[in-house]
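Minutes, project check-in
Item: structure for the 187-residue chain
Input as provided by the requester:
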Amino acid sequence: MERDGPPANDCCSICHGNFNIPCQANCSHWFCGQCILRLWDYGSALQPCRCPLCRSPISLLIPSEASLRQRNDPEVANIISRLESYNRLYGERSSSLIQRLRDLPFLLRRLIRDMLDPQRSLPLVIKARVYLAVLLSAIYLLSPVDIIPEGILGIIGLLDDAIILLICLLHVAAIYRSVLVYRHGGS
């Protein structure tokens, strides 16, 4: 069992069989690559398909590492190229704030895993941007200078700290989403 693959005791929620060319959606659910593409084929061609489990729009489909290693198989290569085409169409779209908040746990979990794993590499510029954003927001959170001071307004003064933290996390997630779209969009 790969650590980046679907859970060992899980099955595809579309075909109810074992995973064949598993891929993970931005909502963190796992599907067979062929099943989720079939779902997309039968839906609207102008908008991303919706997750059959949580009904959120799927804007990014990430194949597992095991699927990527089987790329020389023609069937797998065809499905991965269709996944890349899907990611090119819907991965870079600007989505609503609600959708970005829904994608936040998925993207941050994958980002942390990629940054801590020495066998995965993120470009140095991306790592620097992530570290800089986190460092600057940490400095703001820890500094006594605030837009809304806690000393005067009490608990309401923490609102600006929460907003800065949220903006930082959304920015870091957007940076990492662009890396994923580049990696899995066939560019």
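Outcome recorded: The longest strand covers residues 22-25.
No further action items on this chain.
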